[in-house]
Specification:
The chain is of the alpha+beta class and 288 residues long. 28% of the residues lie in helices and 28% in strands. It folds into two domains: 3-120, D-amino Acid Aminotransferase, Chain A, domain 1, CATH 3.30.470; 126-284, Alpha-Beta Barrel (D-amino Acid Aminotransferase, Chain A, domain 2). Strand 8 (171-176) and strand 9 (179-183) form a beta hairpin. It is globular and about 60 Å long. The mean pLDDT is 97. It binds pyridoxal-5'-phosphate (PLP). Pyridoxal-5'-phosphate (PLP) binds at residues 34, 182, 185-187, 206, 208-211, 244-246.
Length: 288
C-alpha cells in the first residue's frame, strides 16, 4: 500500500479520508497537477507550480504552500513510495465548509490538499526506432470555455477518452468551430511538408508543460515550428501527428479515425524531436 499526503500528513492510502462536504466532491471545485519524476528527479517542477498558481488564482483559492514546501512534499512522497519513474498527482479543493452552497464560503474554508504517486509507463521516446505509435479519433470538443484552468472537473474529457477507447484508440483529438484545440488529456502537434504546427495558447486549451518544452526544443534545434490555428481538414492530410503530456512525453499518432497518418509509422520530424527530448531528459534527470 502506498502513502499519500492529505492535509498536512502522510498516511497510507487506505487510511486517507475526506469529508463528503468537500467542495471537490460536491462541485468538482478544485484544481490539480500531474508532475512527472524520472529517476526520482522532478521534471519541469517550476513550470508545473507556476501553472498551479495560475489555476488557483483563476478560482480565487489561496495557494496553501510555497514552492519550496511543494517541492519538499513531492520529494518526500517519492522517497516513501519508491524513486523510479512516477508521477506526483496533486489536488487542491476549496475545502469542506459546513453548508453546501454554490457561492464561495465566507470566511473561506481551509483548502483540502491531496497528493499521491503512480508509476509512469516507459514512453515512446525512450526507444524511438521501435516505437509503434498509437491510434486516435477526431471528436467534437464538448468542454467549457476555460480549458486553460487545470480544473478537476473532467467529465467531458473522460467521456471523450472513453469514446476513443471504445473505438480502439488511445486518444481523442478535439475540434471546436472547425479548429483543432487539443487532445482529451494531451496537446496536439501536426506536421505537413516538414513544418510543425501546434494551436496557440488560449482559453480553449491547457498550456501543457510538455507542449512548452517541445516548442522550446524545436526552436533550439531549428525544427520549423509555428503556433497557429489548425483546421480540422489538416489532420486528415497530415504527414505526422503527435500528442504530448507529462506522462506520454511526445507520442506519435499513426492512425486517425482508422486511416493511416502519413506513412502510417512514426515520421522523421517526430524521430528528431524524440531524440532531442530524450537527450534533454537524460541530462536533467541524470539518467544512464
Ligand atoms: C486537456 C489537457 N491538455 C493538455 C495536457 C498536457 O499537459 P502537460 O504536458 O502539462 O501534462 C493535459 C494533461 O493532463 C490535459 O489534461
Amino acid at each position: 500500500m502506498t502513502d499519500v499526503f492529505l492535509n498536512g500528513t502522510f498516511v497510507s492510502a487506505a487510511q486517507a479520508s475526506i469529508s463528503p462536504m468537500d467542495r471537490g466532491f460536491l462541485f468538482a471545485d478544485g484544481v490539480y497537477e500531474v508532475i512527472p519524476a524520472f529517476n526520482g528527479v522532478l521534471f519541469r517542477l517550476n513550470e508545473h507550480l507556476l501553472r498551479l498558481q495560475r489555476s488557483l488564482s483563476a478560482l480565487q483559492i489561496q495557494n496553501p504552500h510555497s514552492a519550496q514546501v511543494w517541492q519538499a512534499l513531492c520529494k518526500e512522497l517519492l522517497v516513501r513510495n519508491g524513486r523510479g519513474n512516477s508521477s506526483v498527482y496533486l489536488q487542491i479543493t476549496r475545502g469542506a465548509p459546513e453548508k453546501r452552497d454554490h457561492g464561495f464560503p465566507v470566511p473561506p474554508a481551509q483548502p483540502t490538499v491531496f497528493m499521491a504517486t503512480s508509476p509512469i509507463p516507459a514512453s515512446s521516446i525512450s526507444d524511438s526506432a521501435a516505437a509503434p505509435g498509437a491510434a486516435a479519433i477526431v471528436a467534437d470538443d464538448i468542454r467549457w470555455g476555460r480549458c486553460d484552468i487545470k480544473a478537476i472537473a473532467l467529465l467531458p474529457n473522460i467521456m471523450l477518452r472513453q469514446q476513443a477507447i471504445a473505438a480502439g484508440a488511445a486518444e481523442a483529438i478535439l475540434v471546436r468551430d472547425g479548429l483543432v484545440t487539443e487532445g482529451s488529456s494531451t496537446n496536439v502537434f501536426v506536421v505537413k511538408d516538414g513544418e510543425i504546427a501546434t494551436p496557440p495558447c488560449s482559453r480553449m486549451i491547457l498550456a501543457g508543460v510538455t507542449r512548452e518544452l517541445v516548442v522550446e526544443l524545436c526552436r533550439q534545434h531549428e525544427l520549423p515550428l509555428a503556433e497557429q490555428e489548425i483546421p480540422r481538414e489538416r489532420l486528415y492530410d497530415a504527414d505526422e501527428i503527435w500528442v504530448t503530456s507529462s506522462s506520454k512525453d511526445a507520442l506519435p499518432i499513426v492512425s486517425l479515425d482508422g486511416h493511416p497518418v502519413g506513412s502510417g509509422r512514426p515520421g522523421p520530424r517526430w524521430r528528431a524531436l524524440a531524440q532531442h527530448f530524450l537527450n534533454y531528459k537524460q541530462t536533467v534527470c541524470r539518467l544512464a
